[in-house]
Amino acid sequence: MLPVLLLSASVAFAQDENKDTLAVALDSLAEDTVAVDSIAEPVDLPWPQNVQARLDAILKSWQFLTTQIGLQVYDLTADSVIYQYNERQQMRPASTMKMINAVTSLDKLGGSYQFKTRLYLTGKVDSCVLRGNLYCKGGMDPAFNADDLNAFVESVKKMGVDTIRGNIYADLSMKDSDKWGEGWCWDDDNPSLSPLLVGKKDRFLSRFLQELRNARIVLIGDTLRGATPSGAREICARFHTMDQILSRMMKNSDNLYAESMFYQLAASGNRKATAKTGREQVNRLIQKMGMNPGNYYIADGSGLSLYNYVSPELEVAFLRYAYRNGNIYSQLLPSMPIAGVDGTLENRMRTGFARGNVKAKTGTVTGVSALAGYLTAANGHRLCFSIINQGQRKATTIRPYQDRICEALCKP
Q1: 19 has a pLDDT exceeding 70
Q2: How far is CA 48 from the centre of its chain?
Q3: What is the arithmetic mean of pLDDT over 187-212?
Q4: Among 138, 170, 207, 270, fewest CB within 10 Å belongs to which?
């Protein structure tokens, strides 16, 4: 059953006239529209017809006359669609792109993958002097912090070195030189896409040099950029696990963590990582799922880009793929925000049947609000869903409708 939204002739005319006339018409229509909270429950209908009737009622709200909504709900237990509306509409996913990124990365890289940063040296240590160079090889680990940096310093100190007669190189060869993603807004709080980060900041060499000085290790040379030579010896390696990165990326919707994940994916196969090589990996999975990559565009891994275009149907396909692959699902599901409990859903759906049941990735950029994830229906069936709203200036206006959709799916 698909919802049908009807515009009266006067409202349709108003859309062609001017915004003021449209506003008056919508106000009039809103007075005739039953409030979502007061819609009579379809108690006499069996499942899933009762759920379908609830969603029909929600989508008849006047809000959706001025905004776009795309929605698909899939019954994983019965292996069938139970509700859809504009499910193939190409829309911006905002941070639900992180879910697509996560599923692809878990599929390609595996759950045991590690985000590594390494320290190498060349030359010899003679009488407390390193006559050679240090190379800091970046692996774009977003969780690399002060403790990890201190471990680098300690590895040099343990060799008895108090003077470095050579240079310290930042090896940024993992990826291209782009510091921002394609289609990112200049006035957003954008992360820096550097392979060498410390405390999420692009200031690795200056921090490393300062910590060496604090340890009374003197550099007689320069800090430069350059690739690690093949004969260099590794003296320290620091890493963070897939689960550590995935959890913050999904629960907190951390854009840097998501881009770091995307560029690990892009670098798989020992290639220089670019947004294009990352997009190719996602497109391969889209094609594997029997869909046409040409219908969509993957610009980045975080959803910051205004160039990303997906559909609710595509997002549901990724959720279905993850569910059918136990190794992916077992890591993806715990990383998702839980309604009313934690992450970006901590303050949403704090009461009712959706609380603690809905596990989903949120998405918000200006003009877009989205939600995609899993829940268990009252009959015990496992469902996945994608809701994308576009054209609403304030996400706070549309989120209550997303929450009501989730509640309608969860309640008996």
Answers
A1: no
A2: 31
A3: 95
A4: 270
